[in-house]
Amino acid sequence: MSINLAAQINSIMAALILLTAFGLLVQRRMYGLLHLFAWQGLFLSVSTAIVGYVSGAHHLYISSILTLALKVVLIPYILHFLIRQLHIHKEVEQLVNVPTTMLIGIALVIFSYYLTAPIRELSTLVTRSTLAVALATVMLGLLMMITRRHAVTQIIGFLALENGLFFAATSATYGMPLVVELGVALDILIAAFIFGIFFFQIRTTFDSLDVEQMTKLKEED
Amino acid sequence: MIELYPFLIEAIQILIVLLFAPLFVGWIRMLKCWFQGRTSAGLFQPYRDIVKLFHKDVILAENASWLFRFTPYLVFGVTVLAGGIIPILSLSLPFATVADVIAIVALFAIVRFFTALAGMDIGTAFGGMGSSREMMIGSLAEPAMLMAIFTVSLISQTTSLSNMADMLIHKEFILRPSMAFALLAFVLISLAETGRIPVDNPATHLELTMIHEAMILEYSGRHLALIEWAGMIKLFLFTTIGIASFFPWGISTLPSNAAIGGLGNLISISAGIIFLILKLGFLGIGLILIETGLAKMRIFRVPEFLGGAFLLSTLGMLSYFILE
After folding, report:
1. What is the ipTM of this complex?
2. Whether B311 and A102 lie within 8 Å, measured CB to CB
3. Where are the domains of chain B?
4. CA-to-CA distance for A50 and B13, rounded, in angstroms?
5. Contact assignment for B307 to A14 by CB distance below 8 Å
6. Which terminus of chain A is less hemmed in, N or C, by CB atoms within 10 Å?
């Protein structure tokens, strides 16, 4: 496999990650969201392995396998388990309607392209062009956290945001040191557990996972 | 002396558009029957339908104006004209230099405009409802369609379909995410524009769901035959636009002049026809897989569907700038 072909496959993966980020933004069903999130993790893992191949940095293979294990299998499984345990409403409510969200998303992609254009000039890596996609994925994750009302979907948005950061790290710098990556992976796993505990707490307190309810948590005057 | 070969090829192509379109529809219907476990009416049923309609008398409403009688001929003529521009068999068509892909989209817009007017002309409730729905879909599908096609023209630096196909055939093949996005968007738009499931159901005459059928409900006889035939040609043309802009391999690239000689041209044109049949066969299977797998969506979900198509085509255009 030549470097050129690897770069092409990597940009296809970048495009697919962007597509899944948009998919997460517009998906209405909870299980659909989980599947899309798992797909995004898979593309991320493939892309990491390709970058590892191109750069010869073999620790990237390890982080690729970690991504595969954590973001494609374990975290979706945990969330799936939580959704089943909590009997969460299958349809996801949104604060902003779908077409508007899509348009905002497109604007964010253009904005992040504009923002990363000067950085792109400085880099010499073959994968530098994916930096804009990584930033866009971060922003789309953030947008998802803003526009969704449900705690679980906000968590998925957060995890998608983390995917974007991870992608930025691999595409812009050929990966962080292995220690850092292991730490981040562990953090994400612990976070998933803590989220689970929080869900149960929120649920027992408010009888719902709608975070709007939390506005009740202020003292009476 | 005027070059004869280009016009000969053009004539062959228009003949193929006229004859293959019902055949393609017949193939799709046959596949659909097989997928749903029914016995099909055969590959040639659309021809029989058209012939039957041509033999029937036209029944006109009393208050039908000239517009109503004029529309079927216009629709048919404009659709066939579009069939002369799209490179189906050969890239060097005399018509192809006259109009580019924007003009083709505009031709389809003319067809839609006049069909919608004719739908309202009689003054029945169904016609007006169909027209309003059709215009809603059109207004959302056309920008997305142009965006998808523009993505391909950005890559090939031209808006002429023939040159776009030419660039794709002759350039070194690279994996392009932008093309994949544009293709996906184009598939969604074609489903909407040609009135297939999940946007419209060509086989239904149920009041609540029909869109295109509601507009042409008052037509009968040869008028209906022409409109149905034009509808089949439109489906065929959208498929061939897709082929020309995404999978043009196999279309004859020889410059059609006498210098090449008749035989060489003949061989490459026949190869083009064989490739066309193969591609249409496979695309028919793809279309039926989509149609059997999906349910028709509510009309109020259609803007979301087409919004998705617009999103995909915009992402295609952006990823051309970002990733390539």
Report:
1. 0.82
2. yes
3. 5-323
4. 46
5. no
6. C
